[in-house]
Design a protein that fits this description.
The chain has a five-stranded mixed barrel with strand order 1-2-3-5-4. A hairpin with a 2-residue loop joins strand 17 (317-323) and strand 18 (326-331). The longest helix is centred in the first third of the chain and has 19 residues, at 6-24. The chain has helices spanning 6-24, 109-122, 191-208, 296-299, 405-408; strands at residues 37-45, 49-53, 59-63, 81-89, 96-99, 126-134, 137-142, 145-150, 169-177, 187-190, 215-224, 227-231, 236-240, 261-270, 280-284, 305-314, 317-323, 326-331, 353-362, 367-372. By secondary structure, the chain is of the alpha+beta class. The radius of gyration is 37 Å and the shape is elongated. It starts with 5 loop residues before the first helix and ends in a 14-residue tail after the last helix. It has five helices and 20 strands. 14% of the residues lie in helices and 33% in strands. It folds into four domains: 37-99, Nucleic acid-binding proteins (OB fold (Dihydrolipoamide Acetyltransferase, E2P), Beta Barrel), CATH 2.40.50.140; 109-197, OB fold (Dihydrolipoamide Acetyltransferase, E2P) (Beta Barrel); 211-288, OB fold (Dihydrolipoamide Acetyltransferase, E2P) (Beta Barrel); 292-413, Nucleic acid-binding proteins (OB fold (Dihydrolipoamide Acetyltransferase, E2P)).
């Protein structure tokens, strides 16, 4: 086999090297355009201008006046990173003119109008100071130019008193810039539009990290009779009253407060019911608490006598809270201790402390059947006017229990009342 020449070897090596280098090349980033928000590192400070390296082959310039505080002191140094908006392209140098806070300088004149016109065209936010209240809105000073912001565009929500904004320096979107239009304002601003865009961006970021089963931190924004709305960082979820605690919560305001920070588990995310609607995010606090029913069989063994508090009354019986998150039920037939009871309110009342006997425990179905202790013991049944004479106690099963709570709702399964043995 003929030997390969050195020239052939060098050619193959050069081909392989060129291929390797082409594979390692990083695609060049597109040059920023007017209106783009950019970030870069300050590489030098001149007498009036700071030069910013934007990466790639792009370089920007920003006036030092925009980098000073209210006292006129420079707030940056070489090596610091700054965020800015591309406002123009310098014709002489080709560099990008950056504005850290467009509208802040009080230049006025043609330069200010050109800047405002450009901000309107490219949707660049500008900064202005609210100088006074006008009919239907507020006056705003932007780069020495008087602008107008309607009160409906001053914030995301309803603004009851626009005077509270006077003196504040805020960011706005320029929605109209037309000189010499008679009585109409030449420059019209909207802060609401800008805030809505920022909120949408935060919501998209928050939504990307939210999924069923995750534990997230949020803030209670409002309370209703059926639950609490929780802000998860741009999107809201509902914490239903049944998911606040294992214990029964009658009113969410009893355990939560607006502004409260808390951790919740995301139970599920349901798609919008209508096109363009919001997703429904269901949350739970209860899921993060230990389940009190795990040890219920050991804590409340069948036949044991325990104390509890009457939580609520129903026509078929009484629910007794034995521990936080654990309720048992006393069927109406177990309330009279041998006396006829037509309704639980004839024997007990809500909030009353009672002594009960555990008849049966079903941890899987989360049911505990109870019986009120005999008269004379603490919390025994109260005698009421109008009781007919004593009746025999209801018959029991061989085990002495009345069965599960499901049996209470099945007349065929309930113990029948019959004559006692003679």
């Amino acid at each position: 086999m003929p030997a390969r020449s050195d020239d052939s070897d060098r050619e193959d090596f050069a081909t392989l090297l060129a291929r390797f280098e082409s594979e390692q090349e990083v695609p060049a980033r597109p040059a920023p355009k007017i209106g783009d928000r950019v970030e870069g590192e300050i590489v030098s400070l001149g007498e009036e201008t700071a030069f910013v390296d934007l990466g790639g082959k792009s370089e920007g310039m920003v006036a030092l006046d925009e980098l000073r505080d209210e006292a006129g002191e420079l707030t940056v140094a070489v090596g610091d990173r700054v965020e800015a908006v591309v406002a123009a392209s310098d014709r002489e140098t080709g560099g990008l003119v950056l504005r850290v806070r467009p509208g802040r300088s009080g230049t006025g004149g043609e330069q200010a109008w050109a800047e405002l016109s450009q901000a309107a065209e490219h949707r660049i936010p500008v900064e202005g100071r609210v100088s006074g209240v006008n009919k239907g809105g507020v006056d705003v000073e932007v780069s020495g130019v008087r602008a107008f912001c309607p009160v409906s565009q001053l914030d995301l929500g309803y603004v009851a008193d626009a005077s509270e904004y006077v003196g504040r320096r805020l960011s706005f979107r320029v929605t109209r810039c037309e000189r010499g239009r008679g009585r109409r304002p030449d420059v019209v601003l909207s802060r609401r539009e800008l805030l809505a865009e920022e909120a949408a961006a935060r919501a998209a970021e928050a939504r990307a990290r939210i999924e069923a089963g995750k534990v997230v931190r949020g803030t209670v924004t409002s309370l209703t009779s059926y639950g609490a709305f929780v802000d998860l960082g741009g999107v809201e979820g509902l914490l239903h009253v049944s998911e606040i605690s294992h214990s029964r919560v009658a009113d969410p305001a009893d355990v939560l407060a607006a502004g409260q920070s808390l951790e919740v588990e995301v139970l599920r995310i349901e798609p919008p019911k209508e096109p363009g609607g919001a997703e429904r995010i269901s949350l739970s606090l209860r899921a993060l608490e230990p389940d009190p029913w795990r040890q219920v069989a050991a804590r409340f063994a069948e036949g044991s006598v325990v104390s509890g508090r009457v939580a609520r009354l129903e026509s078929f019986g009484v629910f007794v809270e034995l521990a936080p998150g654990i309720d048992g039920m006393v069927h109406v037939s177990e309330l009279g201790a041998g006396r006829r009871v037509d309704h639980p309110r004839q024997a007990v009342e809500v909030g009353q402390e009672v002594t009960v006997t555990v008849l049966s425990v079903d941890p899987e179905r989360r049911r505990i059947a109870l019986s009120i202790a005999a008269p004379g013991s603490a919390g025994g049944a109260r005698e009421t006017e109008g009781d007919a004479g004593d009746e025999p106690a209801p018959a029991r099963s061989e085990s002495g229990a009345l069965g599960t709570l499901g049996d209470f709702f099945d007349p065929a399964a309930r113990p029948r009342r019959g004559g006692g043995e003679s």
